[in-house]
Design goal:
The protein is an all-alpha fold. It has 3 helices and no strands. The radius of gyration is 23 Å and the shape is elongated.
């Protein structure tokens, strides 16, 4: 995944640098590298279950809000 930014005409170095930085951000390369830099522990079965129950609660609330629109 090579990212190139060549100078266009009489473009300033600052502008060239900004354009390159924008290209790098669009690829998401830095975000991915930061995430990889630290090993993440897998969530325990208990934590997965708690999160699932919490998600289901939020979904249930949203279903009620959809049905009763003036809540």
């Amino acid at each position: 995944m090579a990212i190139h930014a060549h100078k266009k005409g009489d473009e300033s170095n600052d502008r060239l640098q900004q354009r390159f930085k924008k290209q790098v951000q669009k690829t998401g390369l830095l975000k991915m590298l930061r995430e990889r830099s630290h090993r993440k522990k897998k969530p325990t079965r208990r934590l997965v279950r708690i999160r699932a129950l919490k998600r289901e609660g939020f979904r249930e609330e949203n279903r009620k809000k959809q049905f009763y629109s003036n809540m």
